[in-house]
Amino acid sequence: MIVTVEHLDLTYQSPDGEVEALRDVSLSVAEGEFVSIVGPSGCGKSTLLSAIAGLEKPSAGTVAVDGEVVTAPSPKIGYMPQKDQLFPWRTIWANVTLGTELRREGRREGQARARELLERYGLQEFAKKTPGQLSGGMRQRCALIRTLVTEPKILLLDEPFSALDYQTRLTVSADIYAIIRREGKTALLVTHDISESVSLSDRVIVLSRRPATVRAVHDLAELRSLPPMERRDHPAFRRYFNDIWKELDVHAG
Ligand code: ADP
Ligand code: MG
Known about the structure:
By secondary structure, the chain is of the alpha/beta class. It is built from 9 helices and 10 strands. α5 (about 135-150) packs parallel to α6 (about 165-180) and α7 (about 195-200) packs across α9 (about 235-245). The N and C termini lie far apart (about 35 Å). Magnesium ion (MG) binds near residues 45 and 158.
């Protein structure tokens, strides 16, 4: 297992008191796997990703990556937060090479990788443009490339498509999926969109309302081998969707 989360508790201390976000969360992700985490809004999904990224300290339990306990951000993990966070005043080139700029070592290799990735994914001609001149989908692709330049083994994606409209989301998510597969990365995607989770992943982990606990884990065995766009027409799609829908605790109260 490349990611192992064991009995994770996380309670925030705030001026108004404590907020229990995660309770006894255990899960694992295998190398090369694409796993989605779905759960109601505010249940603790981003908290879980931040803990895995080493950005939030658990109150109890452990996160391990490649068998090593995570206590701080690691170069093995590429974290894409909820907003694309490209710097609007920097060119696409300056954005995707940001990671290599901050690291003294391997700058030249990083720049070569950036050039190669921009070319492979059709963004070379936009290198001198700024993010504002690109579509939402292309900005997502740039944000992913920026993360890939640092060569992480694992990608953590926090609702990367939530700002896009429905139609765009379908094509952009398929695009991002294809890049992640082609680059052979392990991915952990957080979303509140069941269709998105069923179209993209090998497994779906369903979280309860806050404090988040693991309610169920679905192996999408019948869809795994299909690309996202073909999954939606497969008979198993509805079945997985309905099962997850019933478990997702957004209907009552
Ligand atoms: P989700 O991503 O599932 O919408 P979050 O993980 O962002 O949920 O938040 C889970 C809960 O923790 C929410 O009630 C949120 O208000 C609270 N929370 C998130 N971050 C902090 C923080 N830094 N301090 C205090 N409470 C927080
Ligand atoms: Mg969130």
